[in-house]
Write a sequence for this structure.
């Protein structure tokens, strides 16, 4: 569905050229749900904009849904759906009108458009809102309308750019169900996100981008396995004594953390050993690796901090 | 696949932006409040014989103000994801511009007609043919200015920048067009400066339609404006950064 080679984009700014995306290769098979993960400014959106014909690459080539990105952008547009980061429905429009015009823009006849709109209103829980002004919709309803607008022409490949940004937890959950349903219907989905739980829950496979390059690739579980071991956090007044026993241990006040393989099994023995040398403990925690740890290992940066700072 | 039907797409884009206006036609009436004020509070200063001279100029002024501000309606659609969403559909890029301009020109023609009819109450005289020609010229000017307005709005993207670009360009264009007073009243240099303003020739042409006189320069000016305006608009809408 997606085959990109050496896709790159350089922006010319007053401070000189900036390589936002430095030649990425992307392969997505039919029916896959691929999460494209990275902090703000990593090149996620720039890559997505190139793949969806919104931005001309400065180098590289790609075949999207069977059409060449550079020589046949119109062919690409006819065969993909795209849901941008921001809401795509006109604030002065009514829900059903926007859907119907969108369908007509894809070349559906008025009759086909009406039928398809009714179908999608139903599928995305928007029944009863046909005549409502877009401006009166809740955030979750607007987002579902956005996705419905991206699906009117039954694309086999759908791009979602940060689909759940600014949604409350319940709407996010609801959106995820819709995305899962799309996948179940056989739609190939390529979504960007900087939410780890979203990437974890939805994706078959993840691509991690940082500083314009792909720095990691694999299923969420594969990626987590790359982090060497579980994180053990011990609370103890003798933190520095404990730290000296483990490699790369980090001391934070009366807390010491370090990684060991199979933390849950290793812990009982470890606690006994510490007891034997007279270390007093007042708390013990074991964390399985998260995608955030994956990200930290790969890039030296915490994705979560980046997301919070944004 | 067949090449996209540009006319069909233009019609769709036109309908999409026209629908909210039809649902709330009061805005059209608000649009003629300002020219009505000129008609009632400035026109009489020119005396009884002034109407044939003043009303055509007022129509050109309406075309200028009515369509130069059109770009403002694009800015919310650029800031939210509407333009982006439309640009990922296979819809013709030309249609995205021309459909919008079409809406503004239709409104402009309706408003101009209302103003002409209102002016007749004050003593303005025109035949149906003159009115048709006069509206045609106004519509063409609207196409030119509307296209440029949308293109600039798409480029600058920010309301406050767009507003200052507008005021910096509209005021000199209007002052040097002789809409309010004849440019020949002023000193030579000012007159010649006004000759460099294509809008002044359009005003002359519009006046010539309702009075005996030469229309040629004005038609050439308006044709050139339409070509330049559409070319610039379409090029900007086609550009990837748009």
């Amino acid at each position: 569905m997606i085959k990109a080679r050496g896709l790159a984009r350089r922006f010319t700014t007053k401070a000189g050229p900036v390589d936002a995306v430095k030649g990425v290769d992307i392969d997505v098979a039919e029916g896959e749900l691929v999460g494209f993960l990275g902090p703000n400014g990593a090149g996620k959106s720039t890559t997505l904009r190139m793949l969806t014909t919104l931005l001309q690459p400065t180098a590289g080539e790609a075949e999207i849904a069977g059409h060449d990105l550079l020589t046949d952008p119109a062919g690409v547009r006819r065969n993909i759906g795209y849901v941008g980061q921001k809401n795509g429905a006109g604030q002065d429009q009514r829900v059903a009108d926007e859907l119907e015009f969108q369908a007509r823009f894809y070349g559906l006849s008025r009759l086909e458009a009406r039928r398809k709109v009714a179908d999608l209103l139903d599928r995305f829980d928007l029944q009863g809102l046909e005549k409502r002004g877009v401006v009166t919709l809740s955030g979750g309803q607007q987002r579902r309308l956005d996705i419905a607008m991206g699906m009117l022409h039954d694309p086999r490949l759908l791009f979602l750019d940060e689909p759940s940004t600014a949604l409350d937890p319940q709407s996010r959950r609801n959106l995820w169900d819709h995305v899962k349903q799309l996948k179940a219907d056989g739609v190939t989905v390529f979504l960007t996100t900087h939410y780890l739980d979203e990437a974890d829950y939805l994706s078959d496979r993840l691509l991690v981008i940082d500083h314009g390059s792909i720095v990691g690739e694999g299923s969420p579980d594969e990626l987590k396995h790359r982090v060497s071991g579980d994180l053990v956090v011990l609370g103890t007044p003798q933190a520095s004594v404990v730290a000296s026993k483990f490699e790369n241990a980090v001391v934070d006040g009366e807390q010491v953390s370090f990684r060991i393989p199979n933390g849950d099994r290793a812990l009982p023995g470890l606690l006994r050993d510490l007891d034997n040398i007279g270390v007093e403990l007042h708390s013990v925690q074991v964390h399985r690796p998260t995608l955030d740890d994956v990200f930290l290992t790969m890039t030296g940066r915490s994705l979560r901090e980046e997301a919070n700072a944004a | 696949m067949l090449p996209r039907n540009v006319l069909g797409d233009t019609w769709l884009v036109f309908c999409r932006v026209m629908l909210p206006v039809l649902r709330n036609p009061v805005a059209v009436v608000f649009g003629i409040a300002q020219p009505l004020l000129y008609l009632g509070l400035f026109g009489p200063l020119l005396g009884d014989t002034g109407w044939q001279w003043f009303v055509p100029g007022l129509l050109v002024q309406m075309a200028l103000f009515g369509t130069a501000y059109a770009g403002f309606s694009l800015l919310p659609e650029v800031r939210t994801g509407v333009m982006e969403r439309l640009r990922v559909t296979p819809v013709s890029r030309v249609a995205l511009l021309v459909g919008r301009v079409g809406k503004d020109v239709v409104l402009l023609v309706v408003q101009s007609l209302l103003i002409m009819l209102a002016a007749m109450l004050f003593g303005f005289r025109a035949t149906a043919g003159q009115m048709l020609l006069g509206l045609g010229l106004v519509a063409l000017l609207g196409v030119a200015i509307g296209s440029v307005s949308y293109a600039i709005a798409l480029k600058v993207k920010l309301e406050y920048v767009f507003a200052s670009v507008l005021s910096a360009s509209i005021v000199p264009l209007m002052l040097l067009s002789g809409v309010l007073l004849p440019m020949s009243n002023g000193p030579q240099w000012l007159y010649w400066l006004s000759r460099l303003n294509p809008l002044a020739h359009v005003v002359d042409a519009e006046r010539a339609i309702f009075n005996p006189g030469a229309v040629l320069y004005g038609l050439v000016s308006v044709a050139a404006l339409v070509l330049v305006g559409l070319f610039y608009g379409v090029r900007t809408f086609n550009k990837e950064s748009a």
User: Anything to note?
Assistant: The first strand of chain A starts at residue 2 and ends at 13. Residues 206 and 306 of chain A are 18 Å apart (CA to CA).
